[in-house]
Specification:
two-stranded antiparallel ribbon, single chain, 9-stranded mixed beta sheet, alpha/beta, Glucose Oxidase, domain 1, about 240 residues
Length: about 240
């Protein structure tokens, strides 16, 4: 069983204001270069997604159990009724405020999440999804503005293709070890894992990088006559 530490609200607030590039710089300065950057194939479902939250992990593995012919009623009962398979139904009830669901689905085409259960997670307070695998129903997820990163695009359902292995245990997702309670920081550049025991120092250093960058960029905005935006705000404070 993984023993979880507690990342403070203050640290989480800071990590929600910085960029993944700031987090990379902070970790590099601490001697952790390239250890916590997820594979570049982990991409946002659409540009503009940005979140930071506490990792709730899950692992799935490939299986080969092709479905046998059945009536639609049997299929409906197996596919949609809670508890009928113990597979993706678990994903529908996952999630709590400030959590990021981090799923190692072995980069399979089986769509472990889709437009409905991502909405359910958000209703529970989930701030993001990171899937080494597929989130299907892409168009619906996009128009719903679901905060999803994944490595695969596919319409396939998980039934008969993938099986549950573990919930909230140490996993490897897109090449990075993730423990429950670690902080996940994501934006258009990619996904970073911040180990919980490093979170306070990473947040402090990342904020220093950001605080140095913003005034310089703001001056160039002003010289170019560009309208100011939140990325060059210099009068905000983080408690």
């Amino acid at each position: 069983m993984i023993t979880q530490m507690s990342v403070s609200k203050e640290t989480l607030v800071i990590l929600r204001t910085v960029r993944t590039s700031d987090v990379v710089d902070a970790l590099d300065s601490m001697g952790y270069q390239q250890q916590y950057e997820m594979d570049v194939e982990m991409r946002p479902m659409f540009f503009g997604i940005r979140f930071a939250g506490i990792a709730h992990t899950a692992e799935y593995d490939l299986t080969d159990r092709p479905l046998q012919p059945m009536s639609y009623e049997e299929f409906d009962e197996r596919q949609y009724k809670a508890g009928s398979d113990g597979l993706w139904h678990e994903a529908g009830v996952w999630g709590a405020p400030d959590e990021v669901l981090v799923i190692d689905a072995k980069r399979t085409a089986a769509g472990i999440l889709g437009s409905s259960n991502t909405l359910g997670g958000v209703l529970n307070g989930v701030v993001g999804y990171v899937i080494d695998g597929t989130c299907r129903d892409s168009y619906e997820c996009i128009i719903q503005k679901m905060p999803v990163f994944s490595t695969v695009c596919s319409p396939a359902h998980p039934m008969g293709r993938i099986q549950a292995v573990s919930d909230n245990q140490r996993i490897v997702c897109a090449g990075v070890v993730v423990n429950p309670g670690d902080v996940i920081v994501a934006d258009d550049d990619g996904v970073m894992v911040v180990p919980q025991e490093l979170a306070d120092e990473v947040a402090s250093r990342a904020k220093r990088v950001q605080d140095k960058d913003r005034p310089v960029r703001r001056q160039m905005y002003e010289k170019l006559g560009l309208p100011l935006d939140e990325t060059v705000a210099v009068d905000e404070t983080v408690a």
